[in-house]
Amino acid sequence: MPVDVAAAVEAVYRSDWGRIVATLIALLGDFDLAEEYAQEAFTAALDQWAASGIPESPRAWIVSTARHKAIDRLRRQTLFTEKLQPQLAHELPSTTEQPAYEEDQIPDERLRLVFTCCHPSLAPEAQVALTLRSLCGLETDEIARAFVVPTATMAQRLVRAKRKIRDARIPYAVPSASEMTERLDAVLTVIYLVFNEGYTATRGEHLVRTDLCAEAIRLGRILRELMSPQSPQEVAGLLALMLLHDARREAREDAAGQIVLLENQDRSLWKRDQIVEGLSLVNEALQGSPGPYALQAAIAGEHCKAARPGDTNWREIVRLYDRLERINSSPVVSLNRAVAIAMAEGPNAALPIIDALAEAGDLENYHLLHAARADLLRRIGARDEAAKSYSRALALVTNEQERIYLQRRLREVQNDSVTH
After folding, report:
1. Is there a smaller number of Cβ atoms within 10 Å at the N or the C end of the chain?
2. How large a percentage of the chain has pLDDT more than 70?
3. Distance (Å, rounded) from C-alpha 256 to C-alpha 253?
4. Residue 100: how many CB atoms within 10 A of its CB?
5. Cα distance between residue 12 and residue 332, in whole Å
6. Distance between CA atoms of 165 and 142, rounded to whole angstroms?
7. Cα separation values, 154 from 145, 158, 214, 281, 370, Å
8. Which residue from 10, 55, 64, 16 is spatially nearest to 37, judged by alpha carbons?
9. What is the pLDDT of residue 84?
């Protein structure tokens, strides 16, 4: 197979999976069927494009092929009238590229689809999980990581949510302007989790997926424009958070693609224009009673303000985490707060907090808990205990660059134990 064909198929998958699946969901009314036929169409593309060339509109080709596969198979199974709209076969043009949504409500197709999927009849976690799976192309284990739950648990949630949509005949319709506000929290969560998956990929050889980071920031910008002139502060907060984190992207890996810790990063590589924009948005988002995204953005802003690692105002970061924990308490927030306390007051002040989190068990399968505990133990000279925590983190990590970093740390504490 020509390399350019495989690359073209991969590019369409990354950029248009969500649009393709959403189109098929609108036509078939079934998540599982939509995903199944989309996958079959992508498989067919690998062979047919190699023989006949890459089509002028790859996404339209995939949608049309998936549509015809669905029609043919359901006809054979005598389920055509049950699973498809009766008029579909003769009314839908074969070159359809997107659902027939009204353009005057939400000015971007992908964002319209996110709003559509975040239906209030579903539980908030189900809304977000389904959107991430069906519209953003994330796998079940990637979504499970975002929610810090086992993959099997997330798989069951997805199955139940899809079943409810099918059985309750929940419509896929663009929400009115008045309905957008009630769906906003779920939409913000989707965008946030897409960015997180891009910023530190669940698996693969690379730490960062720039396509997901860029898509999340793009959606954040459009959402901010969409909600203007009375855009909620949290929209500005989320956009600021993403911009400030993304500003440091080029410095997070060395030439070999390996992780560079924040304290060791070449800050001249940070994108100053994004930092300036992000800090301006932070100031806007902190007005009144700031929400979780605004406070997280303020924390990221403190890092970006520091010209050198030693200039970081860790006590202010701890204070911001205190506020965040009060309004959005979660084990992950508590873990991040503990890391900040370790930087502000020393590892001994933070270890009891992390030990309590480990004892509670909510983060038992979260590799960053064990990695953070290992780092604090290393800093106080408890090398054997640190090695155990690094080993536990290694057993859980799935990203290759994170694995390399943890392996390096484990070797360091093991060698220190031998020399001492």
Report:
1. C
2. 85
3. 7
4. 9
5. 34
6. 22
7. 9, 6, 26, 34, 22
8. 64
9. 54
